[in-house]
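ok so I'm stuck.
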Amino acid sequence: MTQSETETPTEKSIRRIARGTSLVPYQAQLGMEFVEGAEGYAKLRLPYKKENSTVGDALHGGAISSLIDTTGAMAAWTTAELGNPRYFGSTVGINVNYLSGAIGEEIFAEGRVLKRGKEIIYSDVRVTNAAGKLLAQGTVVYRIIERGPE
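replied:
not stuck anymore, here's the structure
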């Protein structure tokens, strides 16, 4: 048996998330990197880049919001089979709370699925610096549907 034949849908999604995160042009432009995942969980890293900052080397809130959105979506995809053309997903809503600035430093986002319905997935995402200081928190509402017959 090959690896793909023995993998669970969660393992397949995590492998695809890890491989594909840097292939999405917007995520690559920001510098997002997949760190780890498990069922209902994803962790991503955003290195500091001057292009993503404001005056004074503060990371722009839009970059943080994008990281929260992507991390919440990746946590949701660990509950479905990412890359399977049968499924389609998109963000329905996002709420972001900025708690402290990230000044010239890399940040990490950890997303955990709070609830998985038939189509709607709710994820909580926490953004910290390398020392573990909480910088932002967000909620991502994501929808994954099975496509009908073409």
